[in-house]
Amino acid sequence: MKAPLNQYQAQIVDPKSDTLNTLTVEQLARRLADADVVVVGEYHGHHASHLLQAQLQLALFQQQPQQILSMEQFETHQQDALNQYLAGSSGESEMIEDTGAWDNYRASYRPLVEFALSHQLPVIAANAPGAIVRCVGREGPHIIDDLSQAQRQTIAQQPFLDTPAYRQRFDDAIGASHGGDDDDGAMKQRLDNSYKAQLLRDNTMAERILQARRDYPGQQILHINGIFHSEQRQGAVALLHARAPELNIKVISPVFWPEDEAMPELSDHRTNGDFLYFLQPLPDAYKSDDRRNRAMRERFSQAEQQPCN
Fold first, then answer.
1. Which of the four, 55, 148, 171, 256, has the lowest number of CB atoms within 10 Å?
2. How far lies 309's CA from each of 122, 123, 132, 181, in Å?
């Protein structure tokens, strides 16, 4: 296996194989033919992730035309606006405005949605509403009790189901970035609230995927989400499996090719997914710690200014 040559190239491998022979997208699709749910983790905004998703969508469709696209990138309360676009009742800019689509929608997710539209395939807005997630992260899970009946229907019925291994991984990733004293009760509470917000997203995606299976029995689901929601079959994948252990769920996870190394150590990543795709690392967002910290403070300050009521 050779290192990816540019930001569009992905090198796909089976981590259970003793060799590092790469798979084509078509070969990968054939290995996924019997899966009920195919989950492709992504690094948000990475060209190789988005190109692989579009290529795999086509390859899976050519094997099984009865396909459903499920996306973290749309929230459950935006489903009607998304359906209007798929039905031809609104234009793309109208859909983007009405759904609050991600800033990189046109560059990254348009091909997936347009493929679904042209083949009359359902697209599931699977993520929990960002406003509710934000308020859980800020004030705690008790805010669920104050939601209206209509709001409550936009999130998982069991919003905080958990798996112990996922909590440890979350604490390792998020806790380290927040820093702080382990004995700081306020910090622990903030981290716990942040974790509950993460669980709200994962549980809602899991329940929406399961609902899609009930609404469209026998159809293969292609679900797209950020890597943390599915890596090591944790997050949304583990919570979906807990609800429906009979489902055949396959996970494809990205791995950055290590810098200055001719070959990655596959043993470090064997549990990341049923299949892996190696890709070039993304450029550093910041070189200056001061500018990075200032940007993070501004981001959190803007979120805190939005009301939770």
1. 148
2. 33, 30, 10, 31
Q: Following CA atoms 53, 54, 59, 61 in sequence, which dihedral angle do they give, to the nearest 10 degrees?
A: 100
How far is it, in rounded angstroms, from Cα 39 to Cα 162?
19
- DSSP for residue 89: S
Looking at the structure of the chain, the number of domains it has is: 2
Residue 187: both structure tokens together: 């910090």
Supply the pTM of this predicted model.
Answer: 0.93
pLDDT tens for each residue of 111-121? 999 999 999 99
Summarize pLDDT for 141-167 with one digit per residue, the tens.
999 999 999 999 999 999 999 988 899
Q: What is the C-alpha separation between 212 and 235, in angstroms, rounded?
A: 18
Q: Are 282 and 43 in contact (CB under 8 A)?
A: yes
Note whether 49 and 107 are within 8 A (CB).
Answer: no
Q: Is residue 240 in a domain?
A: no
Domain residues for 259? 1-32+250-309
Residues 22 and 67 in one domain: no
CA dihedral 301, 304, 306, 308 (to 10 degrees): 180
